[in-house]
Amino acid sequence: MRKEELSIRVFKALGHPIRYKIVKFLYDGPKCVCKLNEDIEFSQANLSQHLKILKEAGILSSEKIGMNMHYSLANDEIKSIIDSVDEFVSSYDYNFK
């Protein structure tokens, strides 16, 4: 896969509100999928699909600990991307069209 294709995959993965929320939820460290399920109000199957997309984009990693699957950000660079977009949005001129 070319770099450009991977970049597009990352942006597409982050472009969904649920996946964005998952990434923000994992900012402070790994979480059990059970905690994600409590915070993200969707079915387990729906949440699993979103987690799969984020993993395939290289955004998340997972580790089985005991009986539970734990998810974390694959690296902290993703935080920089999210923070940059959040900063851009905060300074965005909503009157500009």
TrEMBL record:
Domain of life: Bacteria
Alphabetical list of PROSITE patterns matching this protein: HTH_ARSR_2
HTH arsR-type domain ranges (all copies): 1-93
Entry keyword annotation includes Transcription regulation: yes
Keyword Protein biosynthesis: no
GO MF: DNA binding; DNA-binding transcription factor activity
Entry keyword set: DNA-binding, Transcription, Transcription regulation
SMART domains, sorted: HTH_ARSR
Pfam families, per database record: HTH_5
Signal peptide interval: none
NCBIfam families: HTH_metalloreg
Name of this chain's protein: HTH-type transcriptional repressor SmtB
Native source organism of the sequence: Clostridium oryzae
